[in-house]
């Protein structure tokens, strides 16, 4: 049992005394240790939203993402009836959709409004932010410097009782360093007006996929009793293990926000590009050589279209065009394909690195690239149903979904209403500019899709299927290719003409 005496600098707890001025613990034998100082040794400083190591982090451009930011803030404040009961929110979207920028903006808003905030921004391949080893201690430290001193004192005691608490399981750390200190704090400060908010960004960048799912499970376990005023915002790509973990959670405890067309990302991207290109017009050192009316409206339309709702394309373009060592007009022409880049110039280096990193994680990449090529190189106005693709490549039903699960941040397998059988699944590229990457050998290297080679392969498959179809029609009348002879014939003619 703990006792706190107002006006005193000492806090008596479990056979010892904490001094609230020095935050040191004196045990029954009289020795003094600094448990909180020990905690600081296990903090990932670069994971804070305001860390100096993350100088100038991506955040939402002014007057963009207004609706989604309001949705999240209303959830935190309990003003949204649809999400009021949820204690955890999952914000997810394709690679480069601007998720981290939204998380950063929310963190800055909460910080400015003096919420009790702790954040952890994962970073792939970062020794401190690439794993979850320092997740709990980092969150606990941030809460300790913002909550009343009793929380910090309780953390010091946890390290005094178990100097190796930071090596324990994530479950044990969550319990000892967050849940129990918060419960004890609430015994004295039960009327907390504002929720404590934890932001975990880039969960998919944690190197162990099993740990990713475990963090989600632990977050729900932490809040299961609804006895601590804590809300958790988790931001990630919709990767397989993460999605599967969220899918098992009770719907009333979880709010989901998908970064899709519902939040008008195209309008936001247009606004972002207009503002940034106008800055180049007025601030670039060669601004006097920029013609009036640059860039043309059709150029802006092309950039918005190529962005496919993903901010990473727009921000990459702006960084490239804004280079003070080059002419903005020339660089924009390179982006638009009007001029060729100079030797060694790589306008989409950031995007190329992202695509390579994602494709490197695909299990059967050769087969996946064949399917992507089938989608990318299809004849005009031809649908790419999953059933047709699986039949065309002699795959079992469901194989396309399994093969594409490692590419969920770039490619979507979607269901659409269909008059004939109720629904139809199709494959859609979430990044329209992924096609440009795959068809440019200088960019995609070993992931290159050779048009002539692939058209030839597809033509050979068409011929093979055309010879098999009569037997299929008599033996397997329900086979997906049965009745699709005209479509196979159209594709064959297309591939022969192209090849």
From TrEMBL:
Gene3D superfamilies: P-loop containing nucleotide triphosphate hydrolases (3.40.50.300). Keywords: Repeat. Residues 82-237 form the Nephrocystin 3-like N-terminal domain. The keyword Repeat applies. The keyword NADP does not apply. This is Nephrocystin 3-like N-terminal domain-containing protein. It comes from Psilocybe cyanescens.
């Amino acid at each position: 049992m703990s006792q706190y005496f107002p006006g005193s600098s000492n806090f008596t707890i479990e056979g010892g005394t904490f001094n609230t001025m020095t935050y040191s613990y004196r045990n029954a034998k009289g020795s003094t240790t600094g448990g909180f100082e020990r905690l600081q040794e296990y903090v990932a400083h670069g994971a804070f939203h305001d860390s100096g190591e993350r100088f100038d982090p991506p955040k939402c451009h002014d007057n963009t993402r207004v609706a989604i930011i309001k949705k999240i803030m209303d959830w935190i404040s309990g003003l949204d009836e649809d999400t009021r009961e949820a204690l955890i929110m999952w914000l997810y979207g394709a690679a480069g959709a601007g998720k981290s920028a939204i998380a950063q903006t929310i963190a800055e808003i909460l910080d400015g409004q003096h919420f009790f905030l702790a954040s952890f921004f994962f970073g792939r391949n970062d020794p401190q932010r690439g794993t979850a080893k320092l997740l709990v201690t980092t969150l606990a430290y941030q809460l300790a410097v913002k909550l009343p001193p009793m929380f910090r004192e309780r953390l010091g005691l946890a390290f005094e009782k178990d100097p190796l608490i930071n090596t324990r399981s994530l479950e044990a750390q969550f319990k000892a360093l967050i849940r129990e200190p918060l419960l004890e704090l609430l015994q004295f400060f039960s009327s907390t007006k504002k929720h404590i908010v934890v932001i975990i960004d880039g969960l998919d960048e944690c190197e162990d996929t099993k740990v990713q799912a475990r963090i989600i499970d632990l977050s729900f376990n932490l809040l299961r009793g609804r006895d601590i005023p804590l809300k958790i915002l988790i931001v990630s790509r919709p990767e397989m293990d993460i999605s599967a973990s969220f899918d098992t959670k009770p719907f009333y405890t979880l709010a989901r926000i998908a970064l899709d067309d519902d939040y008008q990302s195209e309008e936001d991207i247009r606004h972002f590009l207009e503002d940034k290109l106008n800055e180049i017009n007025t601030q670039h050192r060669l601004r006097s050589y920029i013609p009036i009316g640059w860039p043309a409206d059709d150029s802006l339309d092309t950039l918005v279209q190529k962005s496919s709702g993903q901010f990473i394309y727009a921000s990459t373009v702006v960084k490239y065009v804004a280079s003070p060592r080059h002419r903005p007009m020339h660089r924009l022409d390179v982006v638009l394909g009007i001029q060729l880049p100079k030797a060694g110039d790589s306008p989409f280096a950031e995007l190329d690195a992202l695509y390579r990193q994602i494709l490197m994680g695909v299990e059967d990449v050769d087969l996946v690239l064949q399917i992507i090529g089938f989608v990318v190189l299809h004849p005009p106005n031809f649908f790419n149903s999953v059933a047709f693709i699986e039949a065309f490549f002699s795959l079992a039903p469901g194989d396309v979904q399994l093969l594409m699960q490692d590419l969920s941040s770039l490619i979507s397998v979607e269901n659409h209403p269909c008059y004939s059988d109720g629904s139809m699944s199709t494959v859609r590229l979430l990044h329209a500019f992924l096609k440009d990457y795959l068809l440019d050998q200088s960019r995609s290297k070993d992931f290159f899709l050779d048009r002539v080679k692939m058209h030839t392969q597809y033509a050979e498959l068409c011929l093979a299927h055309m010879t098999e179809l009569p037997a299929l029609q008599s033996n397997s009348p329900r086979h997906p290719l049965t009745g699709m002879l005209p479509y196979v014939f159209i594709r064959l003619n297309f591939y022969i003409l192209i090849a």
